[in-house]
């Protein structure tokens, strides 16, 4: 593994940091999350036009840039620093790779160039609270998380030669505003039980969507209700949905971990600035040894998590890399722990103002808690990684 970044990778980081520093400060973030879509469309358009961010990891044949998971992780680390509310995670990290992996050539050609250009946003709709399960992050995803033939979840059946969907999915990232939904549904009843994926376009008859209240407003979530909605089967009837989602889940975990590292790093920077200025007993509180020790421990956690993220990103594009099958989940566990530690110290060391919901420190605290609810918790991520690596399997 070469730990040095190329000039192109450094340029991606520099350009993105310049853009989001100008257009995505704390006040802009708070204003964007209160819009109906939950993000700033102008910022999303700028990210697409100047950097090609939505298509960064998509092949050039579909209008993408053709970069690897390493460049994607670097970009998302910068997005995490400012907690940028955008449809990037839902569109470019979850939905687009699913279409690329399982879609027919016609489906790829129809959807991916529009996604890469920033013209179309997309979302992966998974029933219930099973996103982490569907992606294979906290357990085997070959189970009945899509519905299992019982009431609840999303059911798919063929009527008059057309696939139709019934049910609902909650906590869908950007599900209330995405122009295209990739919906996981159970099909086949008990006789041929399986999970399939379907494309549902904005404005489909019988679909109702609403934004949900969420702890972390920077990750907008929506509820999607489907009542006899006509849908297009993604790929074929025999595609390996669990296998594809598990492969995508490893890269998604790496990306979310990169965002967590970026957020933790920025939270630590803000806390350091504060403790250098805030005084008690006639001296800056940052000069107290106890405060130094606490922040030093956070710094060590962040750097360890950053190393894990970079290795996971490299391993995602390297065949035969040691521990590659568990690298993304482990990086995410470390990233979530680092962000929670940095956010907690930020709240406490900012003193009385840090404990108010209006203070910026709580943006980072909510991101840490929200990501753990969506993709964790950390102990289950580690348990799954140990299972995949066979650490506790008898010889």
UniProtKB/TrEMBL annotation:
Transmembrane segments: none annotated. The keyword Methyltransferase does not apply. Keywords: FAD, Flavoprotein, Oxidoreductase. One of its GO terms (molecular function) is flavin adenine dinucleotide binding. This is Acyl-CoA dehydrogenase. PANTHER family: ACYL-COA DEHYDROGENASE (PTHR43884), ACYL-COA DEHYDROGENASE FADE28 (PTHR43884:SF20). It holds the Pfam family Acyl-CoA_dh_1. Its cofactor is FAD. Residues 254-388 form the Acyl-CoA dehydrogenase/oxidase C-terminal domain. InterPro entries: Acyl-CoA_Oxase/DH_mid-dom_sf (IPR046373), AcylCo_DH-like_C (IPR036250), AcylCo_DH/oxidase_C (IPR009075), AcylCoA_DH/ox_N (IPR013786), AcylCoA_DH/ox_N_sf (IPR037069), AcylCoA_DH/oxidase_NM_dom_sf (IPR009100).
